[in-house]
Structure prediction request, 303 residues.
Amino acid sequence: MGAGGRSSLPRGSAPSYIWSVTKQNFLSKLTGSFSTPADGNPTVVMVEAAFKAANLNIRYINTEVFPDGLHAAVLGAKAMNWLGFNLSAPHKVKVIPMLDGLGESASIMGAVNCVVNRDGKLIGENTDGKGFLKAFNEVLDPKDKTILIFGAGGAARAIAVELALVQAKKIIIVNRNAERGEDLAKTIRERTTAEAEYVNWTPKFAIPAGVDAAVNATTVGMDQFDGKELDIDFDSIHSNLVVSDVIVNPPNTHFLQEGAKRGATTIDGLGMLVYQGMIGIKYWTGLDSDQAAMRKALEEVNI
Ligand code: NDP
Prediction:
């Protein structure tokens, strides 16, 4: 392309030209993230490490987008031909009417964390649950297990649906907001073969007997956000329980620390983060990425 000339590149993502970038091409392809608060989100270092390791001229821009600016941000990404973008709290559900279409799993979950520009159309996908499942499977096969999930937001919906799709026996949803909790349990019952139940989050909630794994999929535990401690009876955790958290900043949350003290097997949010990042990069570029480089980049920023 000559200086000031019109780009001959097709609109949207087209993996075939991404890696033929030469020194004369000054146009980086763009990806990124819309969330708030955004300053504690380490995804940028992980994804840019993957692009660098693969020698791709693609950037990942971490942006602070407030709820009332989400629609403008989505239209902006489309106008600028971004390859796609991630969404984090609180945008995963509200973004849906702003998109051109949904992939299959995102449509069941009703939550989008990864948008892919396919020929100029913004299509919502969900990589959270798939990333969670890959990390969870390294510790416990969810088939025929009873799994309790704290939360009913975007991350919880993604995790619950993926666990149900791989034949978890029962999903128990515990959430402050009953309407959101009931709705998620109903989705699982109606769209998968798993049993599902919403249970009211009473103060000092005790994890019931018979639960194989408890997952914190709320925002509780994040630095500077929603408090550090789940309102649960930590003495209901025992050594046969798997205790899992989605929080990455910090990864060793209060919930995981209390679990470890009582001999439970713990899973932090970092494995989920790396795996969902790899799945997103594959959607945007068609490429597999360097898992070790991504994890190393996260470790270097010491989250
Ligand atoms: P949402 O805003 O969609 O949902 C937030 C959830 O947290 C809701 O269920 C809400 O309950 C609950 N919640 C908030 N404050 C409290 C509180 N004080 N006590 C109990 N429950 C509370 O957020 P997301 O689902 O998108 O994200 C949740 C977390 O998951 C974030 O911290 C995010 O960073 C993390 N995450 C990590 C990933 C990883 O790869 N490790 C991937 C995706 C997300 P209510 O409905 O009652 O308001």
Q: What stands out?
A: The CA atoms of residues 174 and 199 lie 5 Å apart. Residues 88-90, 92, 128, 131, 151-156, 175-177, 180, 217-220, 222, 226-227, 246-248, 269, 272-273, 276 surround NDP (CB under 6 Å). Residues 3-127+271-300 form a domain with the Rossmann fold fold (CATH 3.40.50.10860). The chain is about 35% helix and 20% strand.
